[in-house]
Amino acid sequence: MKYYLGIDLGGTNVRVAKVDEEGNVKMIKDSPSYAKEGRDKVIRNIIEMIQTFDLSNVEGIGIGVPGPVDDKTNMMTMSTNLPGFENYPFAEIIEGATGKRVFVNNDANVAGVAEATVGAGKGCKIVYYFTQSTGIGGALVIDGHVVGGRKGYAGEIGNIVVKENAPKINHLALGAVENEASGTALGRKGKEILGEKGDSARKVFDLCRKGDPKAMEIIDQMAKDLGRMMGTIALICDPDCFVIGGGCSKSHDLYFDKLRTYMADYVHEGMKDVPIYLAQCQEPGVIGAAMLAREELK
Amino acid sequence: MKYYLGIDLGGTNVRVAKVDEEGNVKMIKDSPSYAKEGRDKVIRNIIEMIQTFDLSNVEGIGIGVPGPVDDKTNMMTMSTNLPGFENYPFAEIIEGATGKRVFVNNDANVAGVAEATVGAGKGCKIVYYFTQSTGIGGALVIDGHVVGGRKGYAGEIGNIVVKENAPKINHLALGAVENEASGTALGRKGKEILGEKGDSARKVFDLCRKGDPKAMEIIDQMAKDLGRMMGTIALICDPDCFVIGGGCSKSHDLYFDKLRTYMADYVHEGMKDVPIYLAQCQEPGVIGAAMLAREELK
């Protein structure tokens, strides 16, 4: 059996796991990422964590990071949560310290690799994974390899416009799906329409489940916007399946059926039966990072 | 030097060319496709045309067809211009008659392969090609291989919605970019706004070049809609370049700069400098079909 290290590096915490070639987590350790203490501290901490594992049977290391990565250089092209990591060769430093090949990709892409290789999309040639939580980010995974793009911006689907004459909310385009259908957006809309009792995505979903008509309308509109985004994605890559993860997807019973209905307005007849799966991996961050290394070393 | 046969099968004509491995057309023949006389006649005619070539140094055969193709079965999944070809194993029949491997894909995908392998996108890892003529169709080509999709619908970008509250024009979604920015759409809008003197895309481009303000407004709006479509595509696959072909692109000097400007409203800062190239191949249909075979046989 071959093993890989999967590292989920976030702005707050970092987790390192030893994962077998079938995606089973054998051992996992976590720690603060020390992002505020500077990149040297972050990297030193990761190397120390790696060195607590038996590396003798480890084939390679994968790392998921919170931001776009240029997979040709293994460097982040934009980094808001990890100061100093933009265009910094930290993978090379970790390779030097561990003697193992290191592969980096952004966290949504890494989760997509997890679902495509050992999760809900296992066995599908083209998997389109996206996460719907604080934000919305996606990954196009073909034959186990994620499509990174020219500068790692492939999968920045949160910026796809689905609503017209929408107000300026943040740096995203007017009417961007992330500002209409993310967990953050649900909380914002819930607060506007329902007040304090609906000021988070979780509260809106709970009210919807209890049959609150306003909450049901918010979720219906969210499904409409997300379905339109999915239709657009299907027209571009016609995936063998969609896999949806992230906090909102825990309430899949309240809107996955609606997604198919609304997506149908935007695609051709033969495309309407594309499977829509709920993400399966319990630890997509570390498992996906490990599978990223497995696929790249094939 | 290796050689391939490239076949461009349309609803009206069929062209067969012998192409070397670098994409140079060595010999080309054309004929009516006899679509109205039924599929057997169409296929018999193609086989007869193939047999007039010296096949001794031919590695394989590629065929471009007017409709989506399931690249796993080599069959068309939808066929309006070639009656009887839907889910019909014509590639197998041609393989049996010629003893050569046959690879089928839709015409836009085949043109994309031509531009990605020996055309304007040569050397780029991820090429997004699209044609803007009667309709709008695209192809995502990664490392020379076109992304076909679950049922061959990848690249059906003409159906991407870019305009809201748009009227129902045909089977496409309301506000689909093909009904706003194709050559057909330009002719329709030109006739509405300019009358007979602007009732075709060519006439609208000519008037625009002469400085007619209404024609310039039509082209500006077209660039806005097309730029929005390109931004959406970039968010999903972040291509190393866009390559644009089709009749409208002959007037690239009137709107390619605008495409970049308008696309910028829909993408992140680092994505705004993606190269936008004019298609280069003189014979994308037959050359792309030949390169399709070359890439699949690698």
Unreliable segments of chain A (pLDDT under 50, ≥5 consecutive)?
Answer: none
Q: How is the biggest beta sheet of chain A arranged? A: 5 strands, mixed
- CATH third-level topology of the largest domain in chain A: Nucleotidyltransferase, domain 5
Provide the helix percentage of chain A: 25-40%
Shape of chain A: globular
CATH superfamily heading of the largest domain in chain A: ATPase, nucleotide binding domain
Structural topology:
The structure is a homodimer of 298-residue chains.
Chain A: E1 3-9, E2 13-20, E3 25-32, H1 39-50, E4 58-65, E5 69-70, E6 75-76, H2 90-98, E7 102-106, H3 107-117, E8 126-132, E9 136-142, E10 145-146, H4 178-181, H5 183-194, H6 201-209, H7 213-237, E11 241-245, H8 256-263, E12 276-278, H9 284-296
Parallel strand pairs in A: 1-4, 4-7, 8-11, 11-12
Antiparallel strand pairs in A: 1-2, 2-3, 5-6, 8-9, 9-10
Plain-language structure description:
The structure is a homodimer of 298-residue chains. The first copy, chain A, is of the alpha/beta class. Chain A has 2 domains: 3-113 and 282-296, Nucleotidyltransferase, domain 5 (2-Layer Sandwich); 123-278, ATPase, nucleotide binding domain (Nucleotidyltransferase, domain 5), CATH 3.30.420. Helices cover 35% and strands 21% of the residues of chain A. Chain A is built from 9 helices and 12 strands. The first copy, chain A, has helices at 39-50, 90-98, 107-117, 178-181, 183-194, 201-209, 213-237, 256-263, 284-296; strands at residues 3-9, 13-20, 25-32, 58-65, 69-70, 75-76, 102-106, 126-132, 136-142, 145-146, 241-245, 276-278. In chain A, the strands form 3 sheets. A 5-stranded mixed beta sheet of chain A has the order 3-2-1-4-7. The first copy, chain A, has a 5-stranded mixed beta sheet with strand order 10-9-8-11-12, sandwiched between helices. The longest helix of chain A is centred in the C-terminal third of the chain and has 25 residues, at 213-237. The radius of gyration of chain A is 19 Å and the shape is globular. Chain A binds chain B through residues 68, 77-78, 126, 138, 140, 142, 147-157, 159-161, 164-165, 173, 228, 231-240, 265-268, 270-271, 274, and chain B through 68, 77-78, 126, 138, 140, 142, 147-157, 159-161, 164-165, 173, 228, 231-240, 265-268, 270-271, 274.
